[in-house]
Write a structure and sequence with these properties.
Elements: H1 2-22, H2 27-63, H3 70-94, E1 106-112, H4 116-136, E2 140-148, E3 154-162, H5 166-170, E4 175-181, E5 192-202, E6 216-221, E7 237-242, E8 247-251, H6 257-285, E9 300-305, E10 310-313, E11 318-320, H7 323-327, H8 331-352
Parallel strand pairs: 4-9
Antiparallel strand pairs: 1-3, 1-5, 2-3, 4-5, 6-7, 7-8, 9-10, 10-11
Helix pairs in contact: 1-2, 2-3
């Protein structure tokens, strides 16, 4: 059964290569095929090594019947079996179900929670953390919508992170992030606790989600800034309601109504795509809850404690005393994300064992 599955993977890779070279696929479909081929190409060398090792074991077992070659055959057989054990483990990991959205760019939403201005400042800290991490990885940031405060915090900020493999790195960030520190405005030096919520959605392409224009209600209105000041004198802000699901998105950050509409449609596609993904995941995993969390924004996932310079991820009980580095989007954040990714893979292996 395993051999056939591996042969099917090889055949699929060859089929994709043929399609990509045919010149008969659209740009969007070509990009999608390219991502699939890239994933498959990671396992192809392991598959080749697997079949070569199986062939080596078979040849060595044949040689055992020849008295003159028996000693050498036994040595080769032992070496091939040891190698097979390693390759089998590599295949187990490589064949784990992979999130189809891992290679996507993302749309992230950060919103201040309880804690007033201190919460808004913390939302700003989180935005700067992700922005720094994205730039360090060579990804691009585009702000879609922002509601800044006078102290340079954010009541809300929505932005894109554009690049390959962004969702794979950011998908565990969804949830409630809590901060414990002494606010700059606190005269008595008391530690305050406040929070901000983060939502991470893979950015859907048009090929991923088909939206019927008849299902949309599109409203335009005049963009407003802080204190009710008009940003411009035209109805450039856009609100789109997806009638079948009741999903509402709005954007007023751009001066162009067309650009605001394009941003709204990108957010809407991603929200509908993520909603459908959650339905599918729940139907697969309704009997168990992932050790790395559900991704629900109401779930408390991480605490940033300034007095002790520590960051604790509550899902995997990991504490790192690298608060400044993590908030700077440094290697500490990589360490946190790597641990969450490893925990997910361990759980997946346990589920199929």
């Amino acid at each position: 059964m395993l051999d056939q599955k591996l042969k099917d993977i090889q055949a699929r890779a060859a089929e994709i290569e043929t399609q990509m070279n045919s010149g008969n696929v659209s740009g969007a479909e070509l990009a999608k095929l390219g991502r699939e081929y890239s994933r498959l190409s990671e396992i192809l060398p392991i598959i080749s090594e697997y079949f070569a090792t199986c062939s080596g074991i078979s040849d060595a077992e044949e040689m055992l019947h020849d008295p003159d070659l028996k000693g050498m055959a036994q040595e080769q057989l032992a070496a091939f079996k040891e190698q097979f054990s390693v390759i089998e483990r590599q295949l187990q990991l490589a064949l784990l179900p992979r999130d189809a959205a891992d290679d996507h760019s993302v749309i992230m939403e950060i919103r201040a929670g309880v804690g007033g201005e201190e919460s808004a400042l913390f939302a700003g800290d989180l935005f700067n953390q992700y922005k720094s991490y994205a730039l360090r990885n060579g990804w691009n940031i585009e702000i879609i919508e922002e509601n800044a405060t006078s102290l340079h915090g954010y009541k809300e900020v929505i932005f894109r992170v554009l690049g390959t493999g962004v969702y794979a790195r950011f998908k565990f960030e969804s949830g409630i992030h809590r901060v414990q520190r002494v606010p700059e405005t606190e005269a008595s030096g008391r530690i305050h606790t406040s929070a901000a919520s983060v939502a991470v959605m893979p950015e859907a392409e048009e090929i991923d989600v088909i939206i019927d224009e008849k299902d949309l209600r599109i409203d335009t209105f005049r963009a407003q800034g802080a204190g009710g000041q008009h940003v411009n004198k035209t109805d450039s802000a856009v609100r789109i309601t997806h009638i079948p699901t009741g999903t509402v998105v709005s954007c007023q950050n751009e001066r162009s109504q067309l650009q605001n509409r394009a941003n709204c449609m990108a957010m809407l596609r991603s929200k509908l795509y993520e909603s459908e993904r959650q339905v599918q995941q729940n139907s697969r995993d309704n009997s168990r809850k992932s050790m790395v969390g559900s991704g629900d924004r109401s779930e408390k996932i991480r605490t940033y404690n300034f007095p002790e310079q520590r960051v604790t991820d509550h899902r995997i009980k990991l504490t790192l005393h690298k608060l400044d580095d993590i908030l700077a989007g440094g290697q500490g954040l990589d360490e946190m994300i790597d641990a969450l990714t490893a925990a997910e893979r361990i759980e997946q292996l346990a589920g199929i064992s």
